[in-house]
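P.,

For your records, the input lines for the assembly:
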Amino acid sequence: MELNKWRIQMVMKSLLPIFLALMIGYILIFISGYNANEAFTYLFMGALGGKKQIMNTLFAATPLIFTGLATAISFKAGLYNMGAEGQLYLGAFAAAYLGFSLQGLSPGMHITICLLGGALAGFVFALIPAVIKAYLQVDEMVSTLMLNYVAILYTTYLASYPFRAPGSSNAETINILPTAVLPRFVSESQLHVGFLLALVAFVIIYIMLNKTILGYEITALGKNQHFTEYVGMNVAKKIVIVMTISGILAGLGGAIETLGTHGKFVSGFSPDYGWTGLTIALIGKFNPIGVLAGAFLFGILKNGGSSMEIMVGVPRSLISIIEGLIVLFMTVDMLNKRFSLGTKIKQAIQSLGSSKGSQNNLKQEVN
Amino acid sequence: MEQLLSILHTTLRMTTPIALAALGGLYAHRAGVLNVALEGMMLASAFFGVITSFATGNIFLALFVGILASVVLGFVFSFFGITLKGNLTIVGLAINTLVAGASSFILQVVFGQRGTFANQKIVGLKELDIPILRNIPILGDIFNKHTPIVYLSLLVLVVVHFILYHTKLGVYIRTVGEKEDAAVSVGLPVNKLRYISVLIGSVLCGLAGINIALENVTMFVENMTGGRGFIALAAIYSGRGTAIGTYVFSLLFGFADAMQIRMQNIKIPGAFIQMIPYLSIIVVLSVIGLLNKRSRRVSDDV
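Structure tokens returned:
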């Protein structure tokens, strides 16, 4: 009984902010002079009204599952990898490059190589902030933020100059070969096999976090780094492992966008998947199930939002307003929760403010 | 030489919004509040500044409304993040999303414009031509002919430094951030000080937003702040939470921006130039980390 009650409370806590945000969205549509009932009908019918609509919603959720999981796993370990966006871009470009340059492979083989390439790109790019965090104590939040810009600038350069498709007016590469394309389930919907891969990633991360030693260590690391050092865990090594798993997930997400959605690398293709993934991970409380639910919610809003725009003319930007409000209202429920980001930031600031940081590092060194 | 002076002139121009946001965020940072909403605050100020300038033709009113918008967001951020103790990062990201959505939405619904809003009637900031400065070689080339906000930002640097280290308010703010328990036990109004820190940041972000939108472009473009809020955060971190350090790193970004604008004319891909500040922050922090490690090892041996 207790557990049931708790569950209902949890569901209510997440539904209330959504409901409130939708209410405000409704009022905004109304005072902007549109037919609000019609707009909301299209919002929901466009996202959930039929098989095709639901498939498109899942399609919209696919990259968010990857970036959400990528962020969740690192944040859970107390590592603030904000670099999913950049890792996603490099993964996407690597997959595209392998997709159009490798000839004569069987489809299964070609797709696998492209996915591995995307994962490898994400891995390598996450290795930089991981290593300088683990061994030089460079704050990962700053380094990953900075590397995002580097990745976006670099891939834009690649798609604008050396690998630009001849005659294209946009910064994009040529199409990948048919053998590298992730197939769609049905022709009417854009949903492709990448969604299944996202579910596989979800299951793996879920099991890893809940059933393996590494998962236990990640949770321990997130709760108290000094304790884990004390009991003899090699923290530096764990930092590198967690950060690179996170990078691999984001890189895979990018690769899947290239292979399933665009069929080539398009510069600036991501409408902030990395940032949305970060938001999803935060409101999902770094829990894979929460990430999955958040990705679907944002998928519904994105997909329904475009149908609302096409059918009723309500600007799509309304969806950003609703998303922002949902996230804002959800923070209130986190009252008094054991939520370590605030603590971590306080620590970071303390160590910057005084020279306390070096003392902590000293402890690390001694151990 | 002329080239170099012109680059330095642009550097100062490009540094200004970043430095204002960073110096604004610095108070919150020192008070133990990570203000991710700097970006949204600047964007809101840019948007409402442009709208007001268009509607009234009065630049002072535009400045006032822009700062007001940013301050309102500061209250929202503080209310959810400090009073309700919501997660600050989430609240900040939510505000950024909200502002990006709301500015596009209002633009489309009220003004029927998509993405950009440019109009003859939008009055911009005038560049100042200072008679004494004009006649000084080199210095005049770099420091003359900027918007008033650029000069104000230099003053802000001095004031921020002074307040943080030489006034009671500064000591209180730093205490709240460094030793919250101690601050509580001596009876400091912790939440009030945090509100003040965030709101000072809002005012400076308001100035930054106005300078971005109303200096020489005089228009509003979706997401025209372009991540400057996050760059400002990086400048704060890299500058180790000091006013001068923060300004120096803001200058680095401003310089790279200026270089990249210059490079657009000669056909070198700007991407690599643009990468310089991001990469150099990583290199600088790594070197600091390495030096710290070395010195610790030495002291351990002793």
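Two observations worth noting. DSSP finds 13 helices and two strands in chain B. The domain at 2-290 of chain B is CATH 1.10.3470 (ABC transporter involved in vitamin B12 uptake, BtuC).

Regards
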